[in-house]
Design brief:
- It is a single chain.
- The chain is about 40% helix and about 15% strand.
- By secondary structure, the chain is of the alpha/beta class.
- Helix 1 packs parallel to helix 10, helix 2 packs across helix 10 and helix 6 packs across helix 7.
């Protein structure tokens, strides 16, 4: 058996093409052009690259973008003041706060100040709560992007064993909720989990998001499983690696995402989709 590759780059490009058409339709109807505000605190190299890519993606589909680059020493109070100003700005429909933030800033507290209808990352507690109730509004980009990839390959969900490695608020927990909503039996593995190999071996759907290159051995994969590798790490030689030993896993899985070119492009595409969706949700005045 050799796994089929889930081409996230191609799937994401189709979504972006649809969004481009939708944005054109919005502007022709004399509605406000969807606008995304991106906030970067500090000069972390990876974050700077991610922000540049997101701004470029906005331009490609016709979404207006605003960039706010703050120094690493920016206080939490100043950051929150900027977010509150953007909440009140009717021309801004989405607010993205690039993570991670400097250590002196409390990430969870700051994220709570982004208005839920402008929370295009889907991290606000109200958006996470709606997801937990299976009434999603703006969904976390990476987990929802994974679900769209799985939908593309017509993955069957009801009764399937889904195992998620990593329990972060950004990927692991919302990923579990997405799969649970589709009828999977879900297991979340984390740093305190025992017998990780045994959990992985029974997974019909495996999602890994720990950021440790080659952490999951291909021999652990259940034959015929669908394998989603969210982890991405730059190796000393400059190459990018996922969490899963791809060359071995491809011999056992039925479907697998590559790194790069798998989940990453879909995360950005869903961010754009959320921005367009947020513009539609804000027909009524946002109370701040």
């Amino acid at each position: 058996m050799t796994a089929k590759i889930i081409d996230g780059k191609a799937i994401a490009e189709k979504l972006r093409s649809k969004l481009r058409t939708k944005v054109q339709k919005i502007t022709k109807q004399d509605q406000p052009r969807p606008c995304l505000a991106v906030i970067l605190v500090g000069d972390d190299f990876a974050s700077t690259v991610y922000v540049r890519n997101k701004l470029q993606a906005c331009q490609e589909v016709g979404i207006e973008s605003k960039s706010y680059k703050l120094s690493r020493s920016t206080s939490q109070k100043t950051l929150i003041s900027l977010i509150q100003a953007l909440n009140k700005n009717k021309r801004v429909h989405g607010i993205l706060l690039q993570l991670p933030l400097p250590k002196h800033i409390q990430t969870d507290e700051v994220l709570e100040h982004i208005h839920p209808l402008k929370d295009v990352d889907g991290f606000h507690s109200l958006n996470m709560g709606r997801l937990a109730q299976f009434r999603p509004q703006l969904q976390p980009c990476t987990p929802y992007g994974v679900m769209r990839l799985l939908g593309h390959i017509k993955q069957k969900f009801p009764g399937k064993e889904a195992v998620i490695v990593g329990a972060s608020n950004i990927v692991g927990k919302p990923m579990a909720l997405e799969l649970l909503a589709q009828g999977c039996t879900v297991t979340i593995c984390h740093r305190l989990s025992q017998n990780l190999q045994q959990h992985i071996a029974r997974a019909d759907i495996l999602v890994s998001a720990v950021g440790k290159p080659g952490f999951i051995k291909g021999s652990w994969i259940k034959k015929g499983a669908t394998v989603i590798d969210v982890g991405i790490t730059r190796l000393p030689n400059g190459k990018l690696s996922g969490d899963i030993d791809f060359n071995a896993a491809i011999k056992r899985a039925k479907w697998i995402t590559p790194v790069p070119g798998g989940v990453g492009p879909m995360t950005v595409a869903i961010l754009l989709e959320n921005t367009v969706k947020a513009q539609g949700l804000q027909g009524k005045e946002i109370a701040t």
